[in-house]
Amino acid sequence: MLHIDIITVLPELLVSPLSHSILGRAKDRGLLEVNIIDLREYGLGRHRQVDDYAFGGGAGMVMMPEPLYACIQALRSERTYDEIIYMAPDGELLDQPMANQLSMCANLILICGHYKGIDERIREHVVTREISIGNYVLSGGELAAAVVVDAVGRLIPGVLNDETSALFDSFQDDLVAPPVFTRPAEFNGWKVPDILLSGNQGAIDTWRHDQAVERTRQRRPEILSDE
Ligand code: ADE
Hints:
Elements: E1 2-8, H1 12-18, H2 21-28, E2 32-38, E3 51-53, E4 61-63, H3 65-76, E5 83-93, H4 96-103, E6 107-112, H5 120-125, E7 129-132, H6 142-153, E8 186-187, E9 190-191, H7 201-219
Parallel strand pairs: 1-2, 1-6, 5-6, 5-7
Antiparallel strand pairs: 3-4, 8-9
Helix pairs in contact: 1-6, 4-6
Bound molecules: adenine (ADE).
Residues 87-89, 113, 132-134, 136-138, 141, 144 line the site of adenine.
């Protein structure tokens, strides 16, 4: 069972991506629990303030340390976290090995930043890991957090229908996936490779592996391990 708490100022942004069928099934089966926490509940004063101007000036607001800290302390009083993760464009790049590793955790916090980001003291003293989903800047960490939950959630044993299927994902063995085909066997004069219709499973497995290697060499040579 993996429990993920997501801290956000825009909970609405997370509802739809996280109600997706695969993750919904994971939740129904009690394999994954995702809890969205509205940081404003920990905001300061009558206006439930969560951000303020940056010391030193400059455009853009910074998320204040007190609401984040209060929220994280409240969560920590309930469970022990494997990682407290801040979603940030300058974090470690998410990849399949990282997703595998996170899927074996019991409790995670994902902090979604907004505006100019969160006060550096929270990053320094509270956050244990920072993750980026790619070398581009999103307007907030929510969509990045949804990507992490999806990539990690589907790896929990029992979440996918065919339990073995994640094993054959692109990247899982340093190869991208081979091409796939379905009916009809001929469409617009475009034919499915004969081998796939041959019924010879051994030959099909070999063909798929060769295709995966060739595709990886052509498209993503940087992930190919020396075999
Ligand atoms: N927040 C803003 N941009 C991001 C990115 N690329 N990855 C993770 N969090 C982000």
